[in-house]
Every structure is written in C-alpha cells, then in structure tokens.
Design goal:
Blueprint (H helix, E strand, L loop, with lengths): L5 H14 L4 H5 L1 H9 L11 E9 L4 E8 L4 E7 L6 H11 L7 H10 L9 H22 L3 H4 L7 E7 L10 H13 L4 E5 L18 H18 L4 E5 L6 H10 L7 E3 L7 H9 L5 E3 L5 H11 L4 E2 L9 H12 L13 H12 L7 E4 L1 H4 L2 H4 L1 E2 L9 E3 L9 E2 L1 H5 L11
Parallel strand pairs: 4-5, 4-10, 5-6, 6-7, 7-8, 8-9
Antiparallel strand pairs: 1-2, 2-3, 4-12, 11-13
Bound molecules: magnesium ion (MG).
Length: 427
C-alpha cells in the first residue's frame, strides 16, 4: 500500500518550517489548513491499478454489492439490484478484464466491458445490472483518489438536497383497503415526505377474473380508484401521489385507469403496461392528462431513445443500480432533457445505492424526484449493512454527501448476517 499523500506531506513540512517564522494560518487563514485536512492525495492516482473485484449478495441474491480493490489501498463500493441473482461467477469473469487497469478511466472501462460483451448480452438484463454495480464502484474509487465527491466528477451540482418520494410498501400487506391507503399516506406526510407512492396491482384481488389476462375488471378499477381517492382525501391537494401498476396490465386497462384517476391529480401513473412497447405507451399517454412514467425495466440510454423520440412518455424513471450505473444514468437524464422530460429515478437499493443515485440527481437540471423506501425506517438491516454520516433522510430530502467518493461505505460485519445463502461473501 503506497498511500504516501506526497502533496499533503509537502504542505505539512512547509507549515512546520513556516511556523518558525510566521504561522501559516496567520497568513492564509484556517481555511487552508482545513482544506488540506479534507483532501487526501494519493501518491499517483494516474498509476492506480485494480487488483481485485469482490462481491456479496443479500435479499436472496437480488442485491449485489461490489468492492473493487486497488494497489494503493483505496477501494470503491457499488450496488446492483433486481437483475443480479446468480451472477457471482459473472462478476469474477469481469474481474479478469479489469485487473491491472486504471480505475480512474471510468467511461473507458465501462465501454470496454460493454463492447466486449455485445455477444454475451451486454444490451440489457443481468449483464448491464452487474456492470452498473462495477461502474458505480469505479466512480467511488475515482472520488476517493482525487479527494472529491462523485457529483463533482459528474460536472458539479445543481442542488445540495435531493427530494425523495416515499414508497409506502403497502404491497407487503394482503389486500390493503382504502383506509390502509389513507393511513399510510397520513403517516408518510407526518414523517415529512411531500410525495408518496402506492402500488395498484394486486394479483390476488378477488375481483380479478383470470390471473393470466391483464384486463382489469370493473371491480378492480373501482378498488384502485377508491384506494387512491382515500389517500388523496387524507393528505390534501399539495402532497404528490404516484401510483405503480408494475407493468401488469394491458393497454385498455392502462387507458381506463389513467382516465379515471385524472381528477386525483397524480404526479404520475407508473408502468400501466409492460416496458417493451413504446407505441402502446404513446397511445396511453395521448389518451389522458395523467402523466405516464416508465423506465425501471429499461437498460442503457438506448433503452430510452425510442420512447423519448416518439414522445411516448411524460416522465422517465431509470434505476441507476440496474440501467448501467451513474455515468449512463446521467446520459439518460441528459437525453431526456432534450425532450423536456423530467428524470425521476427508481430506487430499491440500500443507502449506498440511494446516495450513489443522489450524486447523479444533483448533477442534472431536469431531476424531479428520487424514490425512497419505507424499509429504511422499518427494517434494521438497512442501517446495519452500511456506514454513513448523519441522518439518512430529513423532511423528505436526502442531503448530498460532500465526502470523497459516494460517501457511503459497505459495513461488511453488519452485512454478514444477511448474506444470501449459497453465495460467496466478499470473495
Ligand atoms: Mg415501479
């Protein structure tokens, strides 16, 4: 480990020598000393080399954590979600392509791994979700090596605080009633959130005639409208409400529910139909004043190109732990901004993924809102698996980390007891 911090050592010597004549702080103020203490300059960042890519899985394999080690003792952390189960050996296959490379060339390494995988599925799915975790860890290393937060490497920030909406997690309850919706909305508002999300799809709804056909019955449509009406009445007109249908319905249901929810003034209706058909999205979007949002099941900027070009969608919600990582997330946001489309990332990660997403959200003008999960408040695991400073969220906003890198570390000790069975743990 050659963590010589040579520039800092030089300044320290200068201070010692200078102190015999005039105290340096008297000349330059305490700010100089503080700035030097804040910054960590590794001996030669330009000569950093990747030595190892380790990984671990939690949540039955649906959350991947990557740690990339270097020859100067700096490591970077990244997270991938949903499309990552069973990918341990794939991570190790990518490790061979990364070993010995300089982690500071983030875009180049991303491009190398992408283009060398185009016959292996590097267009979408597990390949890109794993790449998202690796790419994020590279930004973390770059920030730590250069002594700056990741948003700075992405071109700086438009904002210091990131507005989040709270996913109420009512999907964990069997057949939630309109009263459950009202109570969850009231609770989230009391916690300081200014925006709330509910799920409207219920596979086991007794009013559903057929579990394979995706046309909602009149009873299902009424149930959905009653639930959202109860939430709206509970929180009043100034709280944003969005509703997710998880891509489980057909076009006619998408149009009907979007139309019926118009009086409730939603922030958006999310994935009324599956992700693959931009033409079908355009039909729904043009049929309603309810804003239509999609994107958590799309990959890379390519996945968003046609939707945006066609004007098929009002708001995009890429998942930065799945769609390609932080650089690709910023590229998607910038692409959307050409069409005046807001960027509202999906987020089902740990606080590491949440803060990594925040750096991108800070770096683009068209950021709208980021997803936040009630599990951060109710499930102790989410506090134990990471290390971070300060409160996670306050009054519906995450304060952007100013620490070098992402600003949230993996707590291996805390994560160990939640490790997915059958997977190696940081090997
Ligand atoms: Mg969703």
């Amino acid at each position: 480990m050659a963590n010589t911090k040579s520039r800092r050592a030089f300044f320290k010597k200068a201070i010692t020598a200078g102190a015999m004549l005039t105290p340096l702080s008297a000349t330059f103020g305490a700010g100089l000393t503080q700035a030097m203490e804040r910054n960590t300059y590794y001996s030669k960042p330009a000569e950093l080399k990747i030595t190892e890519v380790q990984c671990a899985f939690i949540r039955f394999g649906s959350s991947l954590f990557v740690k990339i080690q270097t020859d100067q003792g700096i490591y970077g952390c990244g997270e991938g979600v949903d499309a990552v189960a069973g990918t341990y050996h794939f991570v190790k296959a990518l490790e061979w392509r990364l070993k010995g490379k300089n982690p500071l060339n983030v875009h180049r390494l991303f491009d190398d791994l992408r283009k060398s995988g185009i016959f292996q599925g590097a267009q979408a799915g597990m390949y890109v979700a794993v790449l998202s975790a690796i790419e994020t860890a590279l930004w973390d290393i770059a920030g730590k090596a250069l002594g700056v937060p990741v948003y700075q490497l992405l071109g700086g920030k438009f904002r210091d605080k990131i507005r989040v909406y709270c996913d109420t997690a009512l999907y964990q309850r069997n057949l939630p009633t309109p009263e459950d919706f009202a109570n969850a909305a009231t609770e989230a508002k009391k916690m300081g959130f200014t925006a709330i999300k509910f799920d409207l799809d219920q596979r086991n709804d007794p009013k559903k005639y057929d579990s394979y056909n995706w046309t909602a019955s009149p009873g299902e449509l009424k149930r959905m409208v009653d639930q959202v009406t109860a939430a709206r009445e509970a929180v009043g007109p100034e709280i944003d409400i969005c509703c997710d249908m998880h891509g489980r319905y057909d076009g006619v249901t998408g149009q009907q529910i979007a139309k019926r929810l118009e009086p409730l003034n939603l922030m958006w209706l999310e994935e009324p139909i599956p992700a693959e058909n931009p033409e079908a999205y355009k039909i729904i979007s043009e049929s309603t004043t309810t804003p239509i949002c999609a994107g958590e099941n799309l990959y890379l900027a390519y996945g968003f190109r046609r939707l945006l070009e066609m004007g098929a969608i009002d708001i995009i919600m890429p998942d930065l732990q799945k769609t390609g990582g932080l650089g690709e997330g910023q590229r998607i946001a910038n692409l959307a901004s050409l069409y005046y489309v807001p960027f509202a990332p999906h987020m089902v990660a740990s606080y590491l993924g949440a803060m990594a997403s925040c750096h991108v959200c800070a770096s683009v003008p068209n950021f709208m809102i980021l997803e936040w999960q009630m599990y951060f408040h109710t499930d102790a695991m989410y506090k134990e698996i990471v290390k971070f400073d300060g409160p996670m969220v306050e009054n519906g906003f995450i304060t952007l980390s100013e620490k070098p890198g992402i600003g949230v570390d993996i707590n291996e000790e805390g994560m160990k007891k939640y490790a997915a069975p059958g997977y190696p743990f940081f090997k």
